[in-house]
Design goal:
The protein is mostly beta strands and 120 residues long. It contains 2 helices and 7 strands; from the N terminus they run H-E-E-E-E-E-E-E-H.
Length: 120
């Protein structure tokens, strides 16, 4: 199951700190300037919070989500999209620490997932 690294390697990796890169898919919401969350099957992950310095590294990898399948909740350009992010996270704090990749999906992909709740 764990390939060549074995269980001991997995334990060492887990004790080393933030999770290694993982893929998380769900709603990426930007309701107001500087505030971003990712809501996936595990809950709501803080990506960026305006004014307190908590911002995931790699935010510049997020493209202009408004040009594709995007739901506006706060005109003219704030709302949410369906995405898969490559990330490093802190599961205890429910924080995304680093974004390594971004792939925008159709909103329909997220609304069809029974494990996700569409933002209001």
């Amino acid at each position: 199951m764990f390939g060549r690294i074995g269980v001991a390697g997995v334990v060492v990796a887990m004790l080393a700190g933030p999770a290694l890169a993982e893929q998380r898919c769900g709603y990426l919401e930007n309701p107001t300037p500087g505030n971003w969350t990712l809501s996936d099957a595990d809950g709501d992950w803080l990506v960026s919070s305006q004014g307190d310095g908590r911002e995931a590294a790699g935010m510049d990898l997020i493209p202009d989500l408004t040009v594709r399948d995007f739901i506006v909740t706060n005109p003219p350009d704030h709302g949410y999209a369906c995405v898969c992010l490559g990330v490093q996270s802190d599961a205890t704090a429910m924080r995304i620490l680093r974004i390594t990749s971004v792939k925008q999906l159709s909103i329909r992909k997220c609304t069809a997932d029974p494990n996700l709740t569409e933002p209001q």
